Amino acid sequence: HTEDELSRSSHSNPGKSLVNGIKTNPASNSPKSSLPVPMGPPVYVDLAYIPNHCSGKNTDPEFFKRVRASYYVVSGNDAANGEPSRAVLDALLEGKAQWGENLQVTLIPTHDTEVTREWYQQTHEKQQELNIMVLASSSTVVMQDESFPACKIEF
């Protein structure tokens, strides 16, 4: 397209815009609406942070089918808000089962919560079958007047 064509097309569709290559009408988009995720090959990464503190609001099995990580960090520590979410931890099992490859996956919880403990105990056989290891660290980092649990990850 030439600049004139692009200019004319943007003026002929006032109120419309492109988001990720998909035409949208900003007036009809509400904060809760979402665009369909275009299909594509999975993405392989070394480390992935499970979005929104492992809340079920933003993460489902599709996330784990598409984002294939060697390590997933679970940082949820707010039971009142469903963080971490048992449904998201189950979604990891469901998504990983679809990979077709038995790659090693390590889950790194940053907090010891009742939800992660129960999930670990109740799904341990499935975790082993899917080659998922839950990393529990007994290491502690001490910095001046503060200390916190930590783990070391090597790539």
Automatic annotation (TrEMBL):
GO molecular function, one term: microtubule binding
Gene Ontology CC annotations of this record: cytosol; dendrite; microtubule; microtubule associated complex; neuronal cell body; synapse
Alphabetical list of Gene3D superfamilies matching this protein: Ribonuclease Z/Hydroxyacylglutathione hydrolase-like
Biased composition annotated in UniProt, kind: Polar residues: 22-33
GO terms classed as biological process: axonogenesis; dendrite development; microtubule cytoskeleton organization; regulation of microtubule depolymerization
Region annotation (Disordered) ranges: 1-37
InterPro entries xref list: MAP1 (IPR026074), RibonucZ/Hydroxyglut_hydro (IPR036866)
PANTHER family given in the database record: MICROTUBULE-ASSOCIATED PROTEIN, MICROTUBULE-ASSOCIATED PROTEIN 1A
UniProt protein name: MAP1A protein
Lineage: Eukaryota, Metazoa, Chordata, Craniata, Vertebrata
